Amino acid sequence: MIRQVTFASCYVYSPGGAGAVSERSRQLRSFLKAGDAHFMFKYAVRVRQQVADNSPLAGFLCPSHVLVPIPGSAASAARSLSVAEHLAMALIEEGLGQRIWRGLQRVRSVRKSATAGPGSRPTVGNHYDSFAIEPIQPPPTQVVLIDDVVTKGRTLLAAAARLKEAFPDTEIRAFALLRTMGLIEGVTQLLDPCVGEIRWRAGDAHRNP
Fold it and tell me: 2, 4, 6, 104: which has the highest count of C-beta atoms within 10 A?
């Protein structure tokens, strides 16, 4: 198990916060989960602007990166395109990646975190055991895992561990459009780009910020 993976995100989401901005963040998450192509391209443009501007995301995604979308919770043979795949395609259209590689496969279904109660959500180990890597030669030199929403970061850490196991010399980082802000009163802005880390600590993933 790798100990940490660098991640970036662009927007924030408050599951239970009060106020108009928190409500808009929940609407943003709903639109994202719906996988609407127009929505994806709209926000991919915003990500490109942040990557090009003097923001924390400056240079985080670039044309040389191989984008690796996180598969959905269902095993690959029984699923349609994941939201992360739609997002990755939109990012490629904006020049934020060289190509998409779908070699990270979900070979065993896991429970959806959104419908699982506290304590019953898939662990890092559950996600790790559900993933497999398709062989590729030569291995990519720089990959960015792409996901729609990051909460604790268990899925991204497990996926990064699988990739690092298969490609020990590959540089691996992660990007999620939206990051969940947990037990807080609410958020005051939706656009809040950051670069941070997801670490393995005390038997679980911990995201900062």
Answer: 104
Token pair listed for 179 = 């990051």
**Phi, psi (5° rounding) for residue 165?**
-60, -40
Q: Give the CA angle between residues 33, 207, 204 to the nearest 5°.
A: 100
Distance (Å) of CA 11 to CA 22, 43, 98, 160: 12, 10, 23, 22
Q: Which residues contact 74 (CB under 8 A, 6 or more apart)?
A: 106, 109
Per-residue pLDDT of 10-60, as tens digits, reads: 999 999 999 999 999 999 999 999 988 889 999 999 999 999 989 999 999
Rounded to whole angstroms, how far apart are CA atoms 94 and 49? 10
Which distant-in-sequence residues (6+ apart) come within 8 Å of 189 by Cβ? Answer: 12, 21
- Identify which of 100, 109, 102, 99 has the alpha carbon closest to the alpha carbon of residue 79: 109
Note the pTM of the prediction, 2 decimals.
0.95
Instruction: Give the separation between CA 122 and CA 113, rounded to whole angstroms.
Output: 7
Identity at 61, one-letter amino acid code: L
